[in-house]
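Table S2 (text version). Query chain:
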Amino acid sequence: MPMRLAQIFDQSALARAAAAAVIGLVAVAAPLRAETAVPQKAEIEKIVHDYLMANPEVIRDAIDELDRRQKVAEADSRQKAVTQGADKLFNSASQAVIGNPSGDVTLVEFFDYNCGYCKRALDDVSKLIEGDPKLRVVLKDFPVLGAGSVEAAEIATAARLQLKPEKFYEFHRKLLNTRGAVGKAQAIAVAKELGVDTAKLEKDSKSPEVKAAIKEVMELADSLNLTGTPSWVLGKEVIVGAVGFQPLKTKIENTRKCGKTVC
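Corresponding C-alpha cell output:
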C-alpha cells in the first residue's frame, strides 16, 4: 500500500527532530564556559552534522525505534482498554450477536453501513460463521462516516429490538450490501422488507435506549483508539482494517488453541 503523504511528512519531521535532539543532547552534555560557548557549540554542531551526513541510517534507525515503541505502547494501551471494557465489549445487552451465541471464541466487529471495506469484510464474516459452528460474532455499529451512517445506526439498532438474531443478521447483510449511500430511508426500506413495524421502528430509533446503545459503542471505540472501520477485537488483540478471511481465521484458530491470536 503506498505510504500516505501525511506519513511522509511525519517521518520527515521526526528526522529533523531526531537530528535536533542529537545536537541538543551533545551540546548539553558538554559543559561550556560562557566565553567559549559559541565556538564550542558551532564545533559540536559541525561534528554532529558531518556524522549524520556520513551515517544517515542513524536517523532512520532512530525513527524505526520510535515507531516500534509507539506501536508497543498503543498495543499495551488497547489491551488495557479491552480488559477494562470487556463486559461491554463482549456481553453488552445493547449489541447484536450472530453465529453461535454460546460459542467458545468471540469476534467483535466495529463497522459502518457506509464503509466500503466493511462491505467487503461481510463475505469474510459470513465464511467464518459458516465454517466455524463454535464462533460467536458481536456486531458493533460504529457510525463514523457522516449523518447517513448515524441515521442507519439508529434504525438498525431499533430494528434489532424487533428482530430475532437470525433475522437481524439478514437485515444487517441486506443493508450492508445496499449500493450507494446508506441512511434512514435505506435502512427503513430493508426493515420493512423483513416485516418490521416501521411506525414503531421510527419511534424507537429516537429512544433513549437506542441513543445509549450507540453512545456505548462510540465510547468503547474511543477507549480502544479506533478511528476507522472495520476494526476487530479478538481476545485481547485489536485488529484494524479489512485484513481478510484467512488472517482472521488463523487468529481465531490460535485463540482457540492457545488463548492468544499468535501462538
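Notes on Table S2: The mean pLDDT is 86. The chain has two domains: 5-55, 87-258.
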